[in-house]
Amino acid sequence: MLQVIKENAIDESFRIVQSPVFVVTRHGWSKRCLSRSAAINNLAHYMVTKVFRLAEIPTNEACEPVFVNGAFAYKAGDHTEQYNIAHSRCSRRIRLILAKKREFKEWLRKHEEIKQRYSVHLANKPY
User: Fold this and answer.
1) Would you tell me how many other CB atoms lie within 10 Å of the CB of residue 24?
2) Measured between alpha carbons, how far is 30 from 26 in angstroms, rounded to an integer?
3) b/e for 39-75, b at 16 or more Cβ within 10 A?
4) How far is it, in rounded angstroms, from Cα 127 to Cα 112?
5) Most C-beta atoms within 10 A of its C-beta, which of 41, 58, 63, 70?
6) pLDDT over 70, % of the chain
7) Which ranges in the chain belong to alpha helices (H)?
8) What is the pTM of this model?
9) Which residues contact 57 (CB under 8 A, 6 or more apart)?
C-alpha cells in the first residue's frame, strides 16, 4: 500500500533545536548529532535501512565468528556495496532538498521585500 508523501516530511525528520544539536527522527529511530553532515548521514541511514528491510534486501555482509576475551562472538559484516550506493544517493538527495528549501526561503524573503516596496510605491500615487 502506497502512502502519500508529505511535502514537509524532510522538515519533520530533520530539525535544529535551540542548542547546537541537530535532531534526526525517522521511522521510529531518533538521534542527536552535533554536526549537520552527521545528521544527514544518520537520516539517510534510517531511510535506506527502512527501504532495504521492506524489500528484504540484506544491508550487511554475513556475520563472522571472532574470538573475544576467551569466548566466541559474532561480528556483523560490513555494509553491502548496494547499501553504500543507496546511502550516498539518499544523502545527496537530502542535501539537494535542503539546498532547494534554502533557495526558496531566500526567494520568498526577496519577494516579500519587493511587495512591501511596491505597496509603498502605490501608496504614494500623485493622483
Assistant:
1) 21
2) 7
3) bbbbbbbbbbbeebeeeeeebeeeeeeeeeeeeeeee
4) 26
5) 41
6) 91
7) 9-13, 36-54, 81-123
8) 0.71
9) 82, 83
